[in-house]
Write a structure and sequence with these properties.
The structure holds two protein chains of two kinds.
Chain A: H1 2-10, E1 12-14, E2 19-21, H2 31-49, H3 56-72, H4 76-101, E3 108-114, E4 117-122, H5 123-148, H6 152-161, H7 166-195, H8 205-236, H9 256-274
Antiparallel strand pairs in A: 1-2, 3-4
Helix pairs in contact in A: 2-3, 2-5, 2-9, 3-5, 4-5, 6-7, 7-8
Chain B: H1 2-11, H2 26-48, E1 52-54, E2 57-58, H3 63-74, H4 76-89, H5 98-125, H6 139-167, H7 176-190, H8 193-207
Antiparallel strand pairs in B: 1-2
Helix pairs in contact in B: 2-3, 2-4, 3-4, 3-5, 3-8, 4-5, 5-6, 6-7
The chains are: A mainly alpha, B mainly alpha.
């Protein structure tokens, strides 16, 4: 009994990227509400960071919200494993660019001489840089939270709810499902190339480009083969004559909690305009 | 000479700018969906597995040569693939927020559209292969590829993409030209793949009867 309870606690669902806890609040949110919230918060953060001095508190609030729900949905480990290094580099580069190319403030902490030019680093330029990277990080975390907590079936269901025609909805579902298939194909081709001593892992750009030429041809032919197979499979099931789609088991209605989340998004969007 | 020119033009006369909005075969329908998935995947790889040289600027965008060739083959589906690939693959899947991702994607959509218009319109009538198979052997074709694909449309994409980053507050306005320059240079390097892809894979796709003769089919 205890074992089955633990298993159900650990149950996960496949999402667009990786997997998430099946009993998570964020995973079970209506996808339309989830994407609306992402859009509202993104606009809010953009309004915050385009100010001459970004609203650091606002950005950190959105960042905390995203990190909280990444933990709640059980996706934070993927975030750390797959994106953290990339994000840290991107944020460092952003910080350096803002310090170098945004010479503001009057009291320099120190001055650097670079190629004959004198670059001053001030408290204000550092604050602006931190404001920019916190805004970028909060938007990146929010986007990844949405992608990592949404199933492709949720997107299909949302598109159906929006009343789009069958052929459009099915096309979107084919794109979503082909992502995994083509990712596996690409991985197999790359592994085969590594086994033959390809230069894909080299730091030399010419070697990288030439190894990508080698990759591109089998990838494209595999794509053609997959689509011919898939076309035959669909046609053998009468796809071109079909008029409708069978119902979804896991359709999500807009619930009270979704409405609360949207209201929170609207409030957060209004904040930077009021401040 | 006139006969030779007429012969070349006849050879390419099936690939035009006509709309051809008739019914797609189920194989084409599946193919266009899969090519979008491939562009999304390559855009994602291009963004996460290449050096970041500026805020929101990756250096080698691997999807670029693919969507160029897919556009030459599949018209509007390739153009849509370029847009979706940039919006989802190098945008949302890498954590780029919705608004910059939407703005970015226009920077891939317009070059793809311009490339299709020039190759299927003007260049086809002037003896250049509209599918780009002769870039490696014809000086005229190589010239147009360098000027139009690696040059003008690529420069437009770079200037647009970094301008969006400046507008949204990710890149300092003073660093606009540096950012755009790095973007354009990186894309020009990966575009060197396109002539090879076009030369070696186009015959395979053509043999399956899967190349669009117009915009849609």
């Amino acid at each position: 009994m205890l074992g089955s309870q633990q298993r159900s606690k650990k149950r996960r669902v496949k999402t667009i990227l990786f997997s998430a806890r099946s009993d998570s609040f964020y995973v079970n949110m209506n996808p339309i509400a989830k994407f609306l919230l992402l859009l509202l918060l993104s606009i809010g953060v953009v309004v915050s960071i385009i100010k001459p001095v970004p609203d650091l508190a606002y950005n950190l609030l959105v960042l905390a919200f995203a990190i909280g729900f990444l933990a709640e949905s059980g996706t934070i480990k993927y975030m750390v494993k797959s994106y953290l290094a990339l994000l840290v580099v991107a944020l460092l580069v952003m910080m350096v660019w803002w310090i170098l190319f945004n010479q503001i403030g009057t009291n320099p902490i120190f001055t650097i001489s670079l190629f004959g030019a004198s670059l001053k680093v001030t408290y204000l330029s550092i604050y602006v840089g931190i404001g920019k990277i916190s805004g970028y990080a909060s938007m990146a975390f929010m986007t990844l939270l949405t992608i990592m907590s949404t199933r492709d079936a949720d997107i299909i269901s949302a598109l159906r709810k929006l009343g789009l025609p069958l052929k459009v909805v099915f096309f979107a579902s084919l794109v979503a499902r082909s992502l995994n298939i083509m990712s596996d194909d690409l991985d197999s081709i790359r592994q085969a190339q590594f086994a033959r001593g390809s230069g894909a892992t080299s730091n030399n750009i010419i070697k990288k480009v030439s190894s990508f030429v080698m990759l591109s041809i089998p990838l494209t032919t595999s794509m053609i083969k997959r689509s011919v197979d898939m076309g035959f499979a669909l046609e053998s099931r009468g796809f071109s004559k079909s008029k409708g789609m069978s119902g979804f088991i896991g359709e999500k209605r807009i619930r009270f909690s979704d409405a609360v989340i949207i209201a929170f998004g609207v409030f957060m969007l209004a904040l930077p305009f009021l401040a | 000479m006139g006969e030779l020119a007429a012969g070349i033009n006849d050879k390419f006369s099936q690939y035009t700018l006509r709309w051809r909005g008739g019914k797609l075969t189920t194989t084409q329908y599946a193919l266009f969906a899969i090519q979008m998935a491939v562009v999304i995947l390559l855009s994602w790889l291009g963004a996460i597995a290449t050096p970041v040289v500026g805020p929101g600027i990756g250096f080698l965008y691997w999807a670029y040569p693919f969507f160029v060739v897919f556009t030459l083959w599949w018209g509007i589906w390739g153009i849509l693939g370029a847009w979706v690939g940039a919006f989802i693959g190098s945008g949302l899947l890498t954590g780029l927020p919705v608004l910059p991702a939407l703005g970015f994607s226009i920077g891939d959509l317009i070059p793809a559209l311009l490339i299709f218009l020039l190759y299927r319109g003007y260049l086809r009538k002037h003896g250049v292969d509209p599918l780009g198979r002769d870039i490696l052997k014809s000086k005229k074709s190589a010239f147009w590829f360098a000027v139009w694909v690696m040059g003008i449309t690529n420069i437009f994409g770079g200037l647009w993409g970094v301008w969006i980053l400046v507008i949204l507050g990710f890149v300092p306005a003073n660093a606009y030209l540096l950012g755009a320059g790095l973007w354009i240079l990186g894309d020009a390097i990966v575009l060197l793949i396109a002539p090879f892809l076009s030369k070696y894979v186009t015959p395979v796709v053509e043999r399956f009867g899967l190349i669009n003769s117009g915009w849609v089919s």
